[in-house]
């Protein structure tokens, strides 16, 4: 486990984008595991700029996204398919046919999950999986639960997550209650994990995820078992780790 500190959101975004850019430089046909939410927006802006400058090339890259809301079509402006088109795919030279997101409209969520995991396996797994972290400790939409769920599956969103994500919707009632998410096993299958975090509101959960017990009550704690995890976070998000486990940040 590596912790890379950044002064603020902008620097965190540049450093995390640098990891993804290096991955593409070293292996142009990389499989990038991608995330949505507020955290990766700055990372994607850096990647777009570097792609325009000719520094990085997505023409042979492939991508697998973590999750999608159930019931939203890819055209819905709050779907994660729409988010990815708007914030990355339509602005870099990636082939849309090489980008993959779970289908939130699938009638049979279990079959969709199995097909998505088969797809990930057929691509050889993500070379690097970008993650954000929710206030509940969720990764993807793996919410606190009685057990870790391995495969891609349909999940009921935690009330805290619905509240946090309501900022993107007209009202709380418009936030979908269910999502399809890569399971913990699908995420752990990635060769490398890159978790990005920003802001004081993530400081406590970041500490509990990496220095607390490994438990499905804190889904991100499973990452303690992955052999190649890099956490890039700004000082605000690292504040509790800096206070309680400063040796990790040396
Ligand atoms: C997004 C995802 C979520 C977010 C998490 C943090 O694809 O899977 O786990 O990474 O909810 O969201 P932000 O970055 O908005 O704080």
Q: What would your notes on this structure say?
A:
With 250 residues, this protein is an alpha/beta fold. The protein has a single domain, classed as Rossmann fold (3-Layer(aba) Sandwich), CATH 3.40.50. It is built from eight helices and ten strands. The chain has a seven-stranded parallel beta sheet with strand order 1-10-9-6-2-3-5. Helix 2 links the parallel strand 2 and strand 3. Helix 7 crosses helix 8. The two termini are 13 Å apart. Fructose -6-phosphate binds next to loops.
Q: How would you describe this structure in keywords?
A:
250 residues, alpha/beta, Rossmann fold, seven-stranded parallel sheet, three-stranded antiparallel sheet, 16% strand, globular, binds fructose -6-phosphate
Describe the SSE topology.
Elements: E1 2-6, H1 9-26, E2 31-34, H2 41-52, E3 62-65, E4 67-69, H3 80-87, E5 99-100, H4 109-122, E6 128-131, E7 153-156, H5 159-165, E8 178-181, H6 184-188, E9 193-197, H7 203-211, E10 229-234, H8 235-244
Parallel strand pairs: 1-10, 2-3, 2-6, 3-5, 6-9, 9-10
Antiparallel strand pairs: 4-8, 7-8
Fructose -6-phosphate binds near residues 38, 132 and 139.
């Amino acid at each position: 486990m590596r912790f890379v500190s950044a002064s603020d959101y902008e620097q965190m975004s540049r450093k995390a984008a640098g990891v993804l850019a290096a991955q593409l430089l070293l292996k142009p046909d990389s499989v990038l595991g991608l995330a949505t939410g507020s955290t990766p927006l700055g990372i994607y802006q850096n990647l777009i700029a570097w792609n325009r400058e000719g520094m990085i090339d997505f023409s042979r890259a492939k991508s697998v996204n973590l999750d999608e809301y159930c019931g939203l079509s890819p055209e819905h402006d709050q779907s994660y398919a729409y988010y990815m088109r708007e914030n990355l795919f339509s602005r870099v030279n990636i082939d849309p046919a090489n980008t993959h997101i779970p289908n939130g409209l699938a009638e049979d969520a279990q079959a969709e999950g199995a097909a998505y995991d088969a797809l990930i396996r057929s691509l050889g797994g993500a070379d690097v999986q970008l993650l954000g972290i929710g206030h509940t400790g969720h990764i993807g939409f793996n919410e606190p639960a009685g057990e870790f769920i391995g495969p891609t599956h349909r999940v009921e969103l935690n009330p805290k997550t619905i509240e946090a994500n309501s900022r993107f919707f007209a009202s709380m009632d418009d936030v979908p209650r269910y999502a399809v998410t890569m399971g913990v096993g699908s995420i752990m299958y990635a060769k490398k994990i890159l978790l990005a975090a920003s802001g004081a509101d993530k400081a406590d959960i970041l500490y509990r995820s990496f220095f607390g017990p490994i438990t499905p009550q804190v889904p991100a704690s499973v990452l303690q078992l992955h052999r190649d995890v890099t956490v890039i976070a700004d000082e605000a998000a690292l504040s509790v780790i800096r206070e309680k486990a400063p040796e990790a940040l040396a």
